[in-house]
Amino acid sequence: MRETLTLKDPETMAAWAEEQRRRGQRVALVPTMGYLHAGHLALVRRAQDEGDRVVVSIFVNPTQFGPNEDLARYPRDFDGDVTKLREAGVDVVFAPEAHAFYPQGFDSYVVPERLATGLCGASRPGHFRGVATVVLMLCHVTRADVAIFGEKDFQQLAVVRRMAQDLWLPTRIVGVPTVREPDGLAMSSRNVYLTPAARLQARALNQSLSDIAQQVQNGARDARQLENTLRQRLEATPGARVDYASIVDAQSLEPVAELNREAVAAVAVFFGSTRLIDNRRLPIPMTLS
Ligand code: PAF
After folding, report:
1. Strands 274-282 and 92-94: what pairing?
2. Range of the domain at 255
3. What letter would DSSP give residue 11?
4. Given ligand 1 and candidates 40, 101, 120, 134, which is best to mutate, with the most ligand atoms within 8 Å of its CB?
């Protein structure tokens, strides 16, 4: 088994990455906030396919949390994470300290515009500014040839792809399908917050999205009506408080009225103070004339 280095200092990280590139090795980055689960390990496997050296960053990024969000109580298990990543054969765990990564006087941010205004951006102002900024920093410090993201955070993936394109980032952005629990709940570090009762009710996210996808397969095309069905189904779930239930264009993330091109159904639902998100692509079946 290869040795797994744990690096905290951004300059040491950059020097290691430079050395790999000098040797002709492609660096693949998996950015995470830790508390790793099988979904993260799927990203690691994809990174191993895409690159010669794999860096996993563990950094609970303060700039993407709002003042009333769960930064302080975000679940952490650094030693457990490192063990999992060593067993998975990762080359480097990059875990900068917040005060070193954002030193005194830090003053520069990436501000995504249109893609960041709706959905999670509407209820988490400033969230994608923090995400885009830290992803740019992580790609830069790790000299990443490729960076791997989960499709569960599909708005994040869209924002990051656009940012990489707009800012001529030499990092290829790759999305990996959502990994689910056996009952369909999308894996998330935040699932740990759920009470046993809420954990059962949370199956409604995947179930309601699957129902909508089935209705589209069966010919439903009125996006507003489908959105209403989705929202009503979620609102009828005991303990659930719907943040949004939306159907948007898969590229622009703008609301759509009629499903005549690929769209995405996306939901965010609170159980107590725990906010879960999930989404489903809604491909339009080809009609044979
Ligand atoms: O998806 C996450 O865990 C975070 O938003 C990310 C991409 C690691 C940036 O902090």
Report:
1. unpaired
2. 189-281
3. H
4. 134
The answer to whether residue 181 sits within a structural domain is no
Count of structural domains, the chain: 2
Catalytic residue among 37, 40, 127, 140: 40
Which pTM was predicted?
A: 0.96
Whether 184 is covered by a domain: the verdict is no
**How distant is the alpha carbon of residue 229 from its chain centre?**
26
**What is the edge-to-edge ordering of all strands in the sheet holding 146-150?**
5-7, 92-94, 53-58, 27-32, 146-150, 172-176
Q: Which residue has the tokens 């792809």?
A: 161
Contact between residue 253 and residue 261 where contact means Cβ atoms under 8 Å apart: no
Ligand 1 pocket test target in 135, 151, 277 with most atoms within 8 Å of CB: 135
Q: The domain that contains 213 carries what CATH number?
A: 3.30.1300.10
72 and 24 fall within a common domain: yes
Centroid of ligand 1 to alpha carbon of 257 (angstroms): 31
Domain boundary among 114, 142, 176: 176
Which residue's CA is the nearest one to ligand 1's atom 9? Answer: 131
Residue 229 lies in a domain: yes
Q: Any catalytic annotation for residue 40?
A: yes
- Per-residue pLDDT of the chain in tens (289 residues, 90 and over written 9): 679 999 999 999 999 999 999 999 999 999 999 999 999 999 999 999 999 999 999 999 999 999 989 999 999 999 999 999 999 999 999 999 999 999 999 999 999 999 999 999 999 999 999 999 999 999 999 999 999 999 999 999 999 999 999 999 999 999 999 999 999 999 999 999 999 999 999 999 999 999 999 999 999 999 999 999 999 999 999 999 999 999 999 999 999 999 999 999 999 999 999 999 999 999 987 765 5
